[in-house]
Structures are given as C-alpha cells and as structure tokens.
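Example 578, ligand 2'-deoxyguanosine-5'-triphosphate.
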Amino acid sequence: MPRFNNQYIAKLFADIGDLLEIKGENRFKVLAYRNAADHIENLSFDLYDYWESGRDLRQIEGIGQAISEKIDEKFKTGKLGFWDKLAAEIPPSLVEVLAVPDVGPKLAKAMWEQLGIISVAEVKAAAQQGKLAGLPRMGAKSETRILANIEALERRETGRVHLGVAWPLAMQIVAALKELPEVLHIEPAGSLRRMRETIGDLDIVVATEKPAPIMAAFKKLPLAAEVLLTGETKTSLRLSNGMQADLRCVTPQQWGAALQYFTGNKNHNVKIRELAQRKGYSLNEYALTRESDGEPLFFADEAALYEFFGLRYIPPYLREDRGEIEAAFKNGLPAGLAASDIKGEVHCHSTWSDGRNSIEEMARAALAKGYQYLAITDHSQSLGVASGLSAERLAQQRREIDEVQARVPAIRLWQGSEVEVRADGMLDFPDEVLAQLDYVVASVHTGLRQDRDTLTRRALAAIRNPHVKQLAHPTGRLLPRREGGDFDLEQVIQAAAETGTFLEINASPERLDLPDTHVRRAIELGVRLIINCDAHHGDDFNNLHFGVATACRGWASTENVVNTRPLEEFVGLWKKNR
Ligand code: DGT
Ligand code: CA
Ligand code: CA
Ligand code: ZN
C-alpha cells in the first residue's frame, strides 16, 4: 500500500469539499472537509506514521468520526469508496474549474450540466464562443471577466502571454502616446516587435527631446495598475492584466541604435556587438563609439546601423540568432510575405458547428478582407464538444453554402470539413463522404496525450489519405501553456512533402502552429504551407498577421505559402502527389 503523505490526503479532502459544494450539499458538511484538509496540510508530523502507530485519529484537530473512518479506509485499502461514488456523480476535474476566480460552485455546476464543461480549457473555449453569457446570472461582462481570469492564471504559471493578449495592449499604449506632440517616433520593441509567439513584457521605445510629459502620460494610462519604477528616461508599469510594460525615451539621434538594441533578441545583439568590436567600435543602446578616440556615431534608423556593418536590413522577425546575420552578409535573407499577399482561406467555422457567425456572415467578412475564396470547414461528427456535423447535416449545409454563394458571388465558397483524426487513427468520415467535399482539412484535437508512435501514426494516416488536402495545427499546442502532442514532426513534415499535403500555419494567437522553427524545416523539405485564421467569428480574420509573422519567422516567402496564389492557381495546387 502506498504511504499517502499529508499533502495527498489534504488535497483529497479539499477536493471532496469542492465536489460536495458543486453538488449542492449542506454547507457544514462542505466546511468540515475543508477544515480537515487545512489541518492535515499544516500538521507537524506524518499522518500515516501516526495512524500506523495505532493512535486515535480523532485526537487530531479538525478530524472527527466520519473523516477518521475515511482516512483509515484510505490507508488500509488504498481506496476511498466515498470518493469513488462522488467522482462517478460529478467529474473531479471540476475542482480545477472552481479554482478560476469568479467561478463559484453554482456556476461550475451550471457549466457542467448545461454545457458539458469539465475543464478550464473548456471554460475558456466556451467563454470565447460566448456560450457562458447565456447561463443563469451570467452576462457578457462576467464572461469577459472569467476569460481574463483564466488568462491571468496562465500568465502566473508561465510568466508569459500569447500575442493575442500582448498585441492589443501594445497597440493601445502606442496609440495613446502617439497623440503627444513631444513623441517624434514610437515603436513597441522586444519580443512583441519580433512577433515571438509568447511575450514576457512589453518594451516601448520613444524618440523625443522632452521625455517628462511622455513619462507622465504613460503612468496615467487607464491600463496602468502600478508604477514599478520611474526615472527621467525609463518607466516600468504593472498593467491591469498583471503584465509589465517598460517605456524608454531616447533622443532622436539615438533612435536607430536604441530601437535596434531594445528589439533584440539578446543573442542577435551580442553578434552585432561583436561585429562592432571587430571594427574597433563599441555598441550600446545609444550609439556606436569609436574606441580609438571615443567619437560617437549615431544612426537615424535601424537600416543605417545594419548598413554600417555591410548588412542588408534584417527585419525584426528574423532577429533570433538563427543564422540571419550570416545570411544578411550573403544577401541570402528570405523575402518574407505580408498579410496582403494572402488571397483566401480554407479553414473556418460557422454556427453549423462551434463558430459564432453564419456562413453568409463569414463569407462577407472574408470578402471584406479582400479574399477571393473561402472554404467553410465545420467540425466533423465525433467532436461533440464543438457540435461536429454528421454526414446528413453536411448534406444540409451544402444547400446553405450554395444559397450563400448565389447571394455573395464575389467570393468563391467551398464546402469543406475539419475532419477529426480519431484516437484510433481513423478519419471521422468514410471516403465516400470525404469525396463529396470540396476541401478536406484533417485535425487531431483529441487524444493528444497518446504516445509518440500512436500520435505520429494518426497524423501520417491523415496526410496519406488522398482526400485530405491539409493537416491543420499540426502540433496541437495551446499557448502560452499547453505543449502540443508528442508527434514526430520530422516524419510528419517529410510525409507532407512527399504527398504534397499542405501543412497549416494556424494564425490563431493561441496556436501559431506549425511553430516557426518547424516552418523553417518544412521549407527546407519543400512542404507547401498554408496560413489560415481558423476563424470562429468574422473578426478572427484579423489574426492573419500573427500567422504571416510566424511564417516569416520560419524564413518563409510567398512561394512557400499556397494561399498567396489567386483562385485558379490555388485550385491547381490541390492535386496530391500520391
Ligand atoms: P520577453 O520580454 O521575455 O518576451 O523577451 P524580450 O526579447 O522582449 O526581452 P526583454 O524584455 O528582456 O528585453 C528587450 C530587449 O532588450 C531584448 O530583446 C534585447 C535587449 N536586451 C535586454 N537585455 C539585454 C542584454 O543583457 N544584452 C543585450 N545585448 N541586449 C539586451
Ligand atoms: Ca520584452
Ligand atoms: Ca523588458
Ligand atoms: Zn478549426
């Protein structure tokens, strides 16, 4: 029998208290379990030793008859019948849901009973889809607050947020400060400017002759929760979401060197500084200084600084010390691409599954983006949490897509499906159903904790299916916290290259999947990449730039990304190699 330690037993009783509370049990009973948990957690001796020596558990504060019997059963048999019965009634994972601030037992219960929610990840997804607002005593405001609480929990765990959280904050700060007449230049620098997938803190750089009013305005921003440090040219704030934001003011002549320095990353900067030293200069955040006579050299912009070293301008998204400086010497930097190069998307959702807009709304949103084509790819049947479509519902949906196509002829619409690759490795629809679809996207959403072989086999089966044109979000990671599945990505990338299956760069800031490093490998092997927002709402098409940045960080150019092609050419690429 395992010797359960005090922490284990305390957690067990705390969880029982939580589950009983969700169940709606009498308050005193709930409190009794929590009280016992508290006392056990704070014991100065080992509970198991105490029990083993045959002493009476009821002598311990907080432990009465009922709880002493349960401890006895657990220590004797390794099990607790009471817990098993309770866990069969109420999913124990709801305890984790209850840990989210503003989620009380009543709400946890309603989310579980009415929406089938049993994990924090599902609470988050439901909040994003506006599904919580409809619950009793809830509304859009409390839904937004719960979502923010979950993001704060994630930030506390990792110290980082994803771009979807950091980007709008940086834009808000920059927009507010830009109004000031003293601001000559302003840029968000650091990891955000490099469009790294997660952000630790914000770094804003300003060129000005008069920093004081800018510092004052920064401290007074509605977003500012606390001033952490403030000086003449630097101020650090704690923002209301818990993130830190640093503002640095430099003179206009220092601008080029400062922006370059604070953009990073650190290793890229170290390499640039070495170049300076080799030329007999030292480089800091303000200027280059000739070591022989201390003469400073200033740069009006970053391009001038790179040019001084005989380098092509290196865009921020490449500054990760991944060979970009060597490439810039040889004029071998990738050309990159822009959001405006993307001509359409083939992975989005409508109210037919877990999307929030109708097919027509999605079509019009895509058209407003200037897109030439859009495939509606609602989830397939086995993805119950996302209201996946059966083959019958797919047939009905086809009619609606045809109707919308007639009303919105300016954009080409396709019927697709985001077909689940089931845990057993089978696709969620038989080939006959897949054959009727215009465009098939395969995804692994479930069973991401399977072992490497099983997971990889599932991905390969999808890639090798002749109907599957694209593998969506290949790793399944969720930023900033959940690692993707343990796929053998090298094999996945090779199979995609062999078959001509498109690998997605999912532009949702929670995914950015393929990750940039694997984008680079995919390009080496000649994989055809595709960037999609996986939009669940028309506004989600605005995430495109995150996906484009991820492609660029993986050294992609337009020729690597198939949906930079206009309609006819894009369709011409659908044919697979085998
Ligand atoms: P983050 O905030 O963790 O997402 O990442 P960054 O890259 O924004 O890092 P941060 O905020 O610590 O610093 C911003 C930039 O300042 C960084 O990218 C490069 C520059 N920097 C910071 N510390 C150093 C340093 O010790 N040496 C050099 N050369 N540059 C530095
Ligand atoms: Ca930073
Ligand atoms: Ca910083
Ligand atoms: Zn999707």
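Summary: DSSP finds 24 helices and 17 strands in the chain.
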